Amino acid sequence: MIKRIAALTALVPAMLSTPAGVASAHPAPQAPAVVTLTYDASNAGQWAGPIKQAVQNWNDAVHNVRLEPTSTPGSADYIYEATNGWPQATLGPVFPGGSGDVQLGQQAVDEGYDATRIAAHETGHILGLPDDYSGPCSELMSGHGPGTSCTDARPDAAEAAQVDKNYAAGTPTVRPHHHQVVIDIWSGRVLTGSR
């Protein structure tokens, strides 16, 4: 019986045209490493639900970056915070070790804009997407452009593809020290600044 098992062990690789104990000459291509960005929403107050949904929408749409809540306050790559002003965010892409900031301004909600769309839109800035206020409601980065009736809080295919491209190479060894802050003045004026 042992001789038959030994004979079969030698025969199976021969039948499959693969020499026993020899690795393939062509290794399987490796998928790029997924970049994990951590966020802290401990100062976001009533925005907790919209942030959770916005993060889920992004995680469902992209492949090269994953957004996760931080397990250690003070060490997040970016933060969400509730403010009384206008929504604004750091224009990324932000990478691990970064210092992104999303300010979820109550003024936009008071004017009738959807809180989840605001949170997802501002997260898009963290991921490196600029505003495109002339876009349709289906384009998340059109922001306030389509008006208060627009509640679509999911990135479209082109936006998801751009974010995947932004993170396709993984985490760079050299990261910028200064980021542009995009202030989404939802009443029509657009201001940008650096920090």
Description:
The protein is α/β, with parallel strands linked by helices. It has one domain: Collagenase (Catalytic Domain) (3-Layer(aba) Sandwich), CATH 3.40.390. It contains five helices and seven strands. It has helices at residues 2-15, 48-61, 106-110, 115-126, 157-166, and strands at residues 35-43, 65-69, 78-83, 88-91, 100-105, 180-184, 190-194. The protein has a seven-stranded mixed beta sheet with strand order 2-1-3-5-4-6-7. The longest helix is centred in the N-terminal third of the chain and has 14 residues, at 2-15.
Produce the secondary structure layout.
Blueprint: H1 2-15, E1 35-43, H2 48-61, E2 65-69, E3 78-83, E4 88-91, E5 100-105, H3 106-110, H4 115-126, H5 157-166, E6 180-184, E7 190-194
Parallel strand pairs: 1-2, 1-3, 3-5
Antiparallel strand pairs: 4-5, 4-6, 6-7
Helix pairs in contact: 2-4
Distinctive features:
7-stranded mixed beta sheet; alpha/beta; 195 residues; disordered C terminus; Collagenase (Catalytic Domain); 7 strands
Question: How many helical elements?
Answer: 5
The total strand number stands at 7
Apparent shape: globular
List the uncertain runs.
4-16, 18-22, 186-195
Number of domains as seen in the coordinates: 1
Structural class, from secondary structure content?
alpha/beta
Distance between the termini: 76 Å
Instruction: Determine Rg (CA atoms, Å).
Output: 23 Å
CATH superfamily: Collagenase (Catalytic Domain)
CATH topology: Collagenase (Catalytic Domain)
Order of the strands making up the biggest sheet: 2-1-3-5-4-6-7
Helix content: 25-40%
How are helices and strands ordered from N to C?
HEHEEEEHHHEE
Task: Indicate the mean pLDDT.
Answer: 83
Annotated CATH architecture: 3-Layer(aba) Sandwich
Largest β sheet strand count, sense and barrel closure: 7 strands, mixed
Q: What is the CATH top level name?
A: Alpha Beta
Strand-residue proportion: 15-25%
